[in-house]
Design a protein that fits this description.
Residues 374-441 form the Argininosuccinate lyase C-terminal domain. The chain has helices at residues 6-11, 25-31, 34-37, 41-57, 63-82, 94-106, 119-155, 175-200, 219-226, 235-240, 243-269, 297-320, 334-358, 363-370, 377-386, 391-408, 417-421, 437-443, 452-470; strands at residues 160-165, 168-174, 202-203, 230-231, 277-278, 360-361. It is mostly helical. α7 packs antiparallel against α8 (175-200), α8 (175-200) packs antiparallel against α11 (243-269) and α8 packs parallel to α19 (452-470).
Length: 471
């Protein structure tokens, strides 16, 4: 037999024992994932170190062998992080790269590390560790944006704007109340991420390829070493489950949906037709042909990137929909989708917080808009209800009153008592005092309402909640 060179030995697959022919170069390129799953290297190094310790208890490694492996793995991790160690695509993925580098460093003792461990449970554990960490990072970014919203809500607490349904003026609300609506959306997003993190907080090592392992692996001790709350209960499910990854992308999709809704309104409000806000020059762009333009590109990109994340969610669901138990190579397609979705959300949350923190509120425009459009019509209907008129009758009376105002080209706020009485004798002088936007807002004095006191309470609760979460 011809003597093998070191290069030939390194390029040899660690699984090549039963094969008589080398893998085609095209197949190597097609199946390689190291160019993106390198992001898991810290988690793979960490779990391999923990596994090396566990193999002492299992009788596979001596204390000296384990220490030798751990020292080498630590050096490999530093080398990958610094860029001194170059990863090889022919070694398929980050896991095979690390194992190959380990064997190069410590020789045959390095070949013992994979005892009882499959790439199937190894990858799943790495991926779960990644998802746990990313949930915390995204949550921090959500909290940063919530903080920006609270600061703006406190600053603009007196500003009244029109509330809309069907994009038609509906009732007056505080601008701060509007901002707190998005705070609540992002609060739900945080709770979803907590659930995702809990779902991912399950260690799969010890599942082997699909059936478990013959070695006495202390799974509980290994889970504790890696910071997992629990261990998987079924080896078949453990290596083929990607629910936690789908849950993360689904949570990311919800975050992007909320940001997209917010973007849509910022884009509309920054238009000359509304002019409710002005976005800072630093987060806007100009036109290559029209000198006067100031485009809300960061908001538009935030809205547009939502489609990318939605696509990753549908892609993952489609990958999983027909997979038989247990592991199939299709599952290699999970990571790029998750990586891209998480990166998109983090980038969007970051730029969004900056954009909202620097926008200018045109309070005069909002106030003017809240004074026209018959926004206090519902308050007048409620006035009649409080004076014994059934709501449906009151609704019809005020509808006719609004039609009268439209024909007369006037607003409800300027109606006299004599004019009101033309439509109902139930109107008294006090009815003329509830026709302003300010009065309407003050009247919504209940938990969750837009009255200033209630909004201040909501901001205070939110501040307390954020402080507790950070602690």
């Amino acid at each position: 037999m011809a003597k093998r060179t070191k290069k030939t030995e390194k390029n040899k697959k660690l699984w090549a024992g039963r094969f008589s022919k080398s893998m085609a170069k095209s197949a190597e390129v097609f199946s390689a994932s190291v160019h993106y799953d390198v992001r898991l290297y810290k988690y793979d190094i960490g779990q391999s170190i923990a596994y090396a310790k566990t193999l002492i208890k299992a009788g596979v490694l001596t204390t000296q062998e384990s220490a030798k492996i751990i020292k080498a793995l630590t050096e490999i991790g530093k080398g990958i992080g610094s860029g001194k160690i170059k990863l090889l695509s022919e070694l398929e993925d980050i896991h095979m790269n690390i194992e190959t580098f380990l064997i190069d460093k410590v020789g045959n003792v390095g070949k013992k590390l994979h005892s009882g461990r499959s790439r199937n449970d190894q990858v799943a554990t790495d991926f779960r560790m990644f998802v746990r960490a990313e949930c915390l990072l995204v949550t921090t970014l959500l909290m940063n944006l919530q903080t920006v919203l609270l600061e703006l809500a406190e600053k603009q607490i007196k500003v009244i704007m029109p509330g809309y349904t069907h994009m038609q003026k509906a009732q007056p609300i505080l601008f701060s109340h509007y901002l707190m609506a998005y705070y609540e959306m992002f609060e739900r997003d945080k709770k979803r991420l907590e659930c995702v993190r809990s779902e991912a907080d399950v260690m799969t090592l010890g599942s082997g390829a699909l059936a478990g392992t013959n070695f006495k692996i202390d799974r509980e001790g290994l889970a504790k070493e890696l910071g997992f709350a629990q261990i998987s209960k079924n080896s078949l499910d453990a290596v083929s489950d990607r629910d936690f990854a789908i849950d993360l992308v689904a949570a990311c999709s919800m975050i992007m949906m909320h940001l997209s809704r917010f973007s849509e309104e910022l884009i509309i409000w920054a238009s000359d037709e509304f002019d409710f806000i002005e976005l800072c020059d630093q987060y806007s762009t100009g036109s290559s042909i029209m000198p006067q333009k100031k485009n809300p590109d960061m908001a538009e990109l935030s809205r547009g990137k939502t489609g990318r994340v939605y696509g990753h969610l549908m892609g993952l669901l489609t990958v999983m929909k027909g997979l038989p138990l247990a592991y199939n190579r299709d599952l290699q397609e999970d990571k790029e989708a998750v990586f891209s979705a998480v990166d998109t959300v983090k980038a969007t949350l970051g730029i969004f917080a900056e954009m909202v923190a620097t926008l200018t509120v045109n309070t005069a425009k909002m106030d003017k808009a809240a004074k026209c459009g018959f926004l206090t019509a519902t308050d007048l209907a409620y006035y009649l209800v409080n004076h014994g008129v059934p709501f449906r009758e009151a609704h019809e009376i005020i509808g006719k009153l609004v039609a009268y105002c439209e024909e007369s080209n006037m607003q409800l706020e300027y109606l006299s008592l004599q004019q009101l009485k033309q439509f109902s004798e139930k109107f008294g002088y006090d009815a003329t005092k509830i026709l302003s936007a300010q009065s309407s807002v003050l009247a919504k004095d209940l938990v969750g309402g837009t009255a200033p006191g209630r909004v201040k309470e909501a901001i205070k609760r939110a501040r307390k909640n954020l402080t507790a979460h950070k602690a």
